[in-house]
Structure formats: C-alpha cells, structure tokens
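Appendix B, record 7
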Amino acid sequence: MTNPSRTPGPIRAVYFDVGETLINESTEYGTWADWLGVPRHTFSAVFGQVIAQGRDYREVFQHFRPGFDLTLERQRRAEAGLAEHFNGRDLYPDVRECLAQLKADGYFVGVAGNQTARAGRLLHELNLGVDLIATSDDWKAEKPGTEFFAKLIESAGCAPEQIAYVGDRLDNDILPALNAGLTTVFIRRGPWGYYYAGQPEVQRAHLRIDSLRELSSRLRELS
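Structure tokens (predicted):
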C-alpha cells in the first residue's frame, strides 16, 4: 500500500536495513539459544514476548542469564570458534533479484544497518552487487540516532527525500528515517515486521510491501 499524504521527490538512492530485511536471522538466533543452553523454541517465544512489549531485543538474553553482556559474549563465542556468521543461504530469496533490478533501474543502492564490523565483512563476501555497504561500527553511529541517518544521507550524495530506506522496524527504521526526511518503505517480514504491521504508525511509511519483488515497480509508481 502507498501513503497518499506525502509525495516524495524522484528517488535516486535506495538503502536497505540488514537483519530481517535482507538476512533471515533464524540461524543466528538459533545459535544464541544454543550458546545460552536453552531450547530454540523457548528462546524464540521469549524473543516474541519482548518485541510485543516494545522492549529492546537485547533484554531477551537477560531472561536466561541476568547480567548478560552481549559484547563480551560475542567475544567469547569468537574465541570458541562460534563467531557470528551468515552466508548466502541466509539471504531472503527475493534479495538478489531485487538488488539487480534496482541497479538496472539506475538507482544508487546501499546497505546500512546496526551491524558489527564482522557482519560488514560477511556482507561484502555475499557479492550483492551494491554500491555501498556500511555498518554502525563503520560509522560509529547506531540507529535510531540522527547521526546514523546523517551519515547515510551524506554517503548517498542526494537530498534526503530522494533516498528510500527499506526496513522491517518502526522504531529503528521507519520512524527515525522519516524524521531525517527520507522516503520510507516498510517490509512485513521477520518478528518485528509482522508485529509492527498491525500497529497504526505503520501507516506513516510511504510504502508498505510484503516482498522485495514489489519494490522496483512500487518505487516507480511513487516517483
């Protein structure tokens, strides 16, 4: 669906969030459940409760191990040979087709999200064919902070309203991107996507889609 209340300028650049927008994070969440020593379905159930209550997903770990330090545990996992990992099998099946079509359409295409430097290297290894891959570690700024979106706008080299940002979350993606003046695209998938799809504020997104296969044609309609 399209939000008819705003008419953004012609889109010149399209940026994507990473987790649950491009990457299916089921493997990584399952690995965390294994690391914590709890059944994967239990971890997923608590994860869903935390999201539905509007709390930070990192609180999930505290339910199973009070005092859990995510940065420290990432380091311990790496030392144990179980560092964060994803590959082409974790890409949603519509990703490569979408990115290739957007490049063929003449857009500047970027990937920018709250990711570690390691995740950034893994993204580069996927050979996505995009113009830019940047992580919060690279920019020393995290969503939903204004500095993150300021750096995104600077990297695109065009006006904010000419940049579309695609994401599955209202709190980290759509609402802060709107505040930064960007054109926003909400995708309904992953735990946040399905939860936020039923929230009234999702109507503020310029576009709402269920698959990246819709994106190219929807952006043409929007412009």
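Remarks on this record: The first helix runs from residue 26 to 36. The two ends are 14 Å apart (CA to CA).
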